Amino acid sequence: DRALTTIEAGAVSQQIQQVQVHVTTYTEASMMSADEDSTSSPDDDPYDDTDILNSAGTDEITAHLAAAGPVGMAAAAAVATGKKRKWPHVFESNPSIRKRQQTRLLRKLRATLDEYTTRVG
After folding, report:
1. What's the angle, vertex CA 103, arms to CA 115 and CA 96, rounded to 5?
2. What span, in angstroms and rounded, lies between the C-alpha atoms of 97 and 28?
3. Would you say residue 91 has pLDDT above 70?
4. Do 55 and 30 meet the contact criterion of CB atoms below 8 Å apart?
5. Which of 88, 91, 68, 86 is nearest to 78 (CA)?
6. CA–CA distance, 94 with 117 (Å, rounded to integer)
7. In the chain, what are the domain boundaries?
8. Considering the entire predicted model, what is its pTM?
9. What is the pLDDT, as a whole number, of residue 80?
10. Which residue intervals of 1-121 are DSSP H helices?
11. Averaged over 85-89, what is the pLDDT?
12. What are the angstrom distances between the C-alpha of 47 and each of 12, 23, 50?
């Protein structure tokens, strides 16, 4: 039983590293189920949780997610390694286009919040 726990922890560690390497990918459901089924204690973790936080910068959201436990760490890794888009913001003077942009952004925000709340719990 102890060997199985070590194997699961090693698999989770490997998947976390893959998330860091592949910037555009997010954590997969298989890693989430491995985290939830794992019976290992925090002392048995083969990887250092602070690496993910330090690479992403210590912002408040990542810290809150990381405090939620192993599933929160996976969500923090997904947030930290997400694709950064640097589009310059330009104020739209056309009211109908502004409304369309607002609707699109609100839908995207709701979808993102739903995704992260289902990941963290």
Report:
1. 165
2. 35
3. yes
4. no
5. 68
6. 34
7. 2-120
8. 0.30
9. 76
10. 2-21, 29-37, 49-56, 60-67, 70-80, 95-120
11. 74
12. 9, 19, 9
